[in-house]
Design a protein that fits this description.
Shape: globular
CATH class: Mainly Alpha
Number of domains: 1
Keywords: DNA-binding, Pyridoxal phosphate, Transcription, Transcription regulation
Oligomer: single chain
Distance between the termini: 36 Å
CATH superfamily: Winged helix-like DNA-binding domain superfamily/Winged helix DNA-binding domain
Number of helices: 5
Organism: Nonomuraea longicatena
Pfam families: GntR (PF00392)
Number of strands: 2
Protein name: GntR family transcriptional regulator
CATH topology: Arc Repressor Mutant, subunit A
CATH architecture: Orthogonal Bundle
InterPro entries: HTH_trans_reg/aminotransferase, Tscrpt_reg_HTH_GntR, WH-like_DNA-bd_sf, WH_DNA-bd_sf
Length: about 120
């Protein structure tokens, strides 16, 4: 898994890590049941604190995308699918809309007007 962080990005590092993992799941780089590298390895590769990576992993577990198993590490949940990518892209769309001065309700109206 190739994760890059943008230290100039206003988003917290744990959100960037979680977003990258969501995209990897959504685009099929990681499938159901696949194990992720240990948090320590990810943290070392990214040059960040292991607690930052753990926070991202817990967030994804709470979303139902990852499963934590004692002694077996972290793996992609059996029910994870393209939903992860859709959630991530929707978040990115909301952020882009905010940059242009649109609110969430405005974006919903735009989506509802699409054929």
């Amino acid at each position: 898994m190739l994760i890059t962080l943008d230290l100039n990005d206003a988003h917290p590092l744990h959100e960037q890590v979680a977003g990258a993992i969501r995209r990897a799941i959504g685009d099929g780089s990681y499938g159901q049941g696949d194990r992720l590298p240990p948090a320590r390895d990810l943290a070392e590769a990214l040059g960040i604190n292991v607690n930052t990576v753990l926070r991202a992993l817990r967030e994804l577990r709470d979303e139902g995308l990852l499963e934590f198993r004692r002694g077996r590490g972290v793996s992609v949940a059996s029910r994870a699918d393209g939903h992860a990518l859709l959630v991530q892209r929707t978040r990115e769309l909301l952020e882009e809309a905010r940059r242009y001065g649109y609110r969430r309700d405005d974006l919903i109206k735009i989506l509802e007007a699409l054929p």
